[in-house]
């Protein structure tokens, strides 16, 4: 029996009706912690050795190497003069650990921040995600994140959670 386009269209509609789509606005509600650390994003040559000043054991740091560059995020007060740097960042930590199967975590943070005119620098680790925001935009970021349903707490000192 040959199906007509009309029969195929009805079959497609029935199939689509059975698919459960996520509800609009059902993004995850997260617990975020704002660190007091003042951070910098540094760019070095791709073949450069990782400098000793970037290997701090306390506070937040992240080192990424690609064929094009060596990027370092670290405390801004350890970065020497003459290095290509963008200073003046604070970091929001997403409470983790996060399961690798979760989706929409960064989108649920990035979307309200973008709508509020707050640019971000995102970093993921094995356990969780971190979102860096420029110092002058921290209050705007906190307001936008809370309005999106996230809980935001400020850390009292480096490495501790409120």
From TrEMBL:
Gene3D superfamilies: VC0802-like (3.30.2130.10)
Domain CASTOR ACT per the UniProt entry, residue ranges: 85-146
Signal sequence coordinates: 1-23
Membrane is among the record's keywords: no
Pfam families per UniProt: A9CJY8-like_N (PF21631), ACT_7 (PF13840)
Keywords, alphabetical: Signal
Domain A9CJY8-like N-terminal: 38-81
Cited InterPro entries: A9CJY8-like_N, ACT-like_dom_sf, CASTOR_ACT_dom, CASTOR_mTORC1
Superkingdom, natural source: Bacteria
Name of the protein in its database record: Uncharacterized protein
Species of the source: Lacunisphaera limnophila
């Amino acid at each position: 029996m040959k199906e007509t386009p009309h029969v195929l269209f009805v079959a497609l509609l029935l199939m689509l009706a059975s698919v459960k789509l996520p509800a609009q606005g059902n993004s995850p509600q997260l617990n975020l912690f704002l660190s007091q650390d003042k951070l910098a994003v540094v760019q070095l040559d791709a073949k450069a050795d990782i400098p000793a000043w970037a290997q701090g054991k306390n506070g937040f740091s992240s080192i990424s190497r690609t064929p094009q560059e060596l990027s370092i995020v670290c405390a801004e007060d350890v970065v020497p003069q003459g290095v290509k740097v963008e200073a003046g960042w604070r970091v929001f930590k997403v409470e983790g650990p996060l399961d690798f199967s979760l989706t929409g975590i960064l989108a649920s943070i990035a979307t309200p921040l973008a709508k509020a005119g707050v640019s971000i620098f995102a970093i993921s680790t094995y356990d969780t995600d971190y979102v860096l925001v420029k110092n002058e935009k921290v209050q705007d970021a906190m307001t936008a994140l809370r309005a999106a349903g996230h809980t935001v707490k400020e850390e009292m000192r480096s490495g501790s959670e409120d």
